[in-house]
Design brief:
- By secondary structure, the chain is an alpha+beta fold.
- It has two domains: 30 residues; 90 residues, Lipocalin, CATH 2.40.128.10.
- It is 32% helix and 37% strand.
- It has three helices and seven strands, in the order H-H-E-E-H-E-E-E-E-E.
- The chain has a seven-stranded antiparallel β-sheet.
- It is elongated, with a radius of gyration of 21 Å.
- The N and C termini lie far apart (70 Å).
- InterPro entries: Inh, Inh/Omp19, Protease_inh_B-barrel_dom.
- This is Protease inhibitor Inh.
- Belongs to the protease inhibitor I38 family.
- It is found in: Periplasm.
Length: 127
């Protein structure tokens, strides 16, 4: 009786583990990693809570930040140097190459992130 209960419990754990593993795998495979060429170009950064605050920002094809990096760095309180695409957004990196902020994809050409202060920032492609 106890043996049967233990086998059933072990089976339940195995099934739950497999469901989590295959669920994560199928979810990750449904997100497409954008090509850097699709994201490179001119963007506008803004803070919705402070409409007058905005910066132009260039995402360079080589994975670096171009014009506007100083303005963005001031908002972040850290030196923003580079960027790379992730399946669900854009990661911005600092001097050591570590991710300092993640901008989540909201829709085509619109990304949103949260500063350390808790303020929301919007990155939107400029026409």
């Amino acid at each position: 009786m106890i043996r049967t209960a233990l086998i059933a419990k072990a089976g339940a754990y195995l099934i739950a583990t497999l469901m989590m593993f295959y669920g994560e795998t199928s979810m990750a495979s449904s997100l497409r990693l954008a090509d850097p060429a699709e994201l490179a170009g001119h963007w506008q950064l803004s803070q919705p809570a402070q409409p007058a605050k905005h910066c132009a920002l260039d995402l360079e094809l080589n994975g670096t930040l171009g014009a506007g990096a100083e303005c963005f760095s001031a908002w972040l309180g850290d030196s923003a140097i580079g960027w790379f695409p992730e399946p669900d957004g854009i990661a911005v990196t600092g001097k050591e190459g570590s991710k300092i902020i993640f901008l989540s994809r909201q829709k085509e050409g619109l990304y949103q992130g949260t500063l350390k202060s808790g303020a929301t920032i919007i990155l939107q492609r400029t026409p």
